Amino acid sequence: MTTQTNYDDFAQAYSDENDSSLLNAYYERPAMLKLAGDVSGRRILDIGCGSGPLAAALVERGARVEGFDSSVAMINLAQRRVGEDVELSVARLGEALPYESDTFDDAVASLVFHYLPTWHEALLEVRRILKPGGRLILSVNHPLLYPWNHPGKDYFKATQYTDEFTFNGQPAELTYWHHPLHEMANAFLQAGFSIERIWEPPYSKDAPEQIVPEKLRERDSFLSFLFFSLRT
After folding, report:
1. Among candidate residues 44, 193, 55, the one with its CA nearest the CA of residue 127
2. Can you name the residues that pair with 151 across neighbouring β-strands?
3. 25-66: pLDDT as tens digits
């Protein structure tokens, strides 16, 4: 049986960490928003919305946002954040989604796809609910991190692995699937997407100095996540 991360176990701690951490608040989320660009008036689906920080930022920029997550606890936190005017659902990426075809201008998937052992069915379902010419903007763990952090492991082999973290003082485990870059790209193309951009962005210079490790303060970038902008 495939091990799955259960965010219900540490939803509040993860949300608190996500709101202010270097990796999320000053690196991943600004990059996703920059890739999204001008979203005013666009209907956007937030895939794996978590506690809603990206959805809230998109709403502030004028988007019409809906979202889903597999964690009930995360959806409850997100609903409190974004208000009742934003429709949020409990659903799981990789299964049938509760949306009509050709519904959304864009979909965003922030650090979600790397929980899946295979991507094809999930990508087909996302493509279904996007309008023709719609975009999927996503971030995943950078594939170089798996062999880097787990010396001796095979970069070219799709592999499930678990890492330990501490979120706002609470220990947690996240279980991922590593996929090499060529498998990611092939999955996008086979599902009918074109790849518009692959990006390894810098972190935001707005980050408070105290949360930036000293060894990174003189650098523009570091490897943690990989970003894609795709179009149907």
Report:
1. 193
2. none
3. 999 999 999 999 999 999 999 999 999 999 999 999 999 999
Residue corresponding to tokens 């965010």: 7
Query: Which residues, 6+ apart, have CB-to-CB distance to 204 below 8 Å?
Result: 26, 27, 30
In angstroms, the CA 201 to CA 31 distance is 7
**pLDDT digit string (tens) for 117-137?**
999 999 999 999 999 999 999
Q: For 130-220, where are the alpha helices, taking DSSP H only? A: 145-149, 181-190
Q: List the alpha helices (DSSP H) in the chain.
A: 11-20, 22-23, 29-36, 53-60, 72-82, 120-129, 145-149, 181-190
Reported pTM: 0.95
- The three-state secondary structure class of 64 is strand
User: What is the spatial distance between Cα 198 and Cα 188, in angstroms, rounded to a whole number?
Assistant: 12
- Residue 215 three-state SS: helix
CB contact at 8 A, 196 and 110: no
Rounded distance, CA 188 to CA 201, Å?
20
Residue 138 has pLDDT above 70, yes or no: yes
